[in-house]
Amino acid sequence: MVISLLLLFGICMSLSFIEEQLQNRDKVLLYGVFGIAMIFIAGMREVGVVPDADAYEELYYNDTDSVAMMLYEPSFNFIIDILQSFSLGVNALFFTYAIISIPLHLTLFWKISRLPLLTLTIYISYYFMMHEMVQIRAGVAAGFFLWAIYLYVEKKKFLTLIFILLATLFHYSAAAGLVIFFFSNRLPNWQRIALYALVPIGLIAYFSHFEAASLIPDELGGTRLMNYRELEEKGNSDLQEGWKLERNLLIWLNFLVYYACIYFHDYIVKHFKYVTIAIKVQAIGFCFLFFVYGISKVVGNRMNDFFSVASILLWTASFYIFCPNLLSKLLSNIISTFRFVSSMVAYALALMFMK
Predict the structure, then answer these.
(1) Cβ of 202: how many Cβ atoms within 10 Å?
(2) Are 319 and 334 within 8 A, CB to CB?
């Protein structure tokens, strides 16, 4: 699997330097080959090679704990029932989610980016591994949510709602994506100031362990939030909290691109009209990380991960900051390489601690 990921990332990154010279027919062919390769890599992985795979295997073959299964989305149970009716193994589950999620992402990248191979490199460097290889339900939800961002900017609000509801069918947390309807596709000065101030204020709240989410009653938070609170009270939440902010360089890189896109917004938006909403969606992710982390490390990190899928759009938008194009591609791919290597190391360490 490691060799397959290295080849996938290396070839896609190399081709991104010359994609403007490729014929459209060749680019479509390459894009399709990458998509098929990614589906097979995600679908054929062995249990124990990446985090969460063993948990999905246990759920897949668990026919007795109906209470635990009720915590998962109906689509998850429906897919498992269909696959088991054909006596298929757990890899069929991985394939099913990959077949839904990866085409969702790739078709969107092709639609919104004039450099789809560069955007695909950004996606492979982190989110392909995190979603399609680990958090498979969140991966499908993120794909639908990215489409919702695109549709919202294109002023197709009814379709935006439909895609957010589809995302929620695959992961309940995607319902939070409805917040997008409160956003405008403009960035007045007062919003710019607020977005600038978010990270420093948030860092103070994060490191002072401010518990804003403790104001949410259990009745409004639902069963999942109650479970997370129980983990926190018992001191078991650290098992699921992920990497802490102070040593998560990938989040600090997201801070960097977030500020760069705000600063150069007026120039970028002329070339990439999705940047305004992407900035605001990323800001919501940071809010979860900063202000919800104190009560539930799991909710804070997972919701930040979900909304931070907008960083794919921000990194794509950052291409327009630098000239000439070769310099932009070089900087983008250097950062993608760092993200890719960091992700591989993080998952390797996670597996070591799991054993």
Answers:
(1) 21
(2) no
The Cα–Cα gap between 224 and 231 comes to 11
Separation of alpha carbons 302 and 73, rounded Å:
16
Structure tokens at 171: 């992961």
Q: What is the number of other CB atoms lying within 10 angstroms of the CB of residue 105?
A: 26
Please tell me the pTM assigned to this model.
0.89
Contact 139, 123 (CB under 8 A): no
328 CA to centre of own chain: 23
Distances (CA, A) of 106 to 3, 121, 160, 312, 353: 22, 11, 18, 12, 33
CA distance 160 to 141: 13
Stated length of the chain: 355
Q: Which two tokens stand for residue 323?
A: 């000239």
Prior bond of 188 cis (ω within 30°): no
Measured CA to CA, the distance from residue 314 to residue 100 in angstroms comes to 24
Which of 296, 314, 3 is CA-nearest to residue 11? 3
Q: Are 45 and 1 in contact (CB under 8 A)?
A: yes
- From first to last of the 355 residues of the chain, give the pLDDT tens digit: 788 999 999 999 999 999 999 999 999 999 999 999 999 999 998 877 777 788 888 888 875 455 556 678 889 989 999 999 998 999 999 999 999 999 999 999 999 999 999 999 999 999 999 899 888 999 999 999 999 999 999 999 999 999 999 999 999 999 999 999 999 999 999 999 999 999 999 999 888 877 654 555 555 445 555 665 565 555 544 444 556 787 788 899 999 999 999 999 999 999 999 999 999 999 999 999 998 876 677 788 889 999 999 999 999 999 999 877 889 999 999 999 999 998 888 766 665 555 4
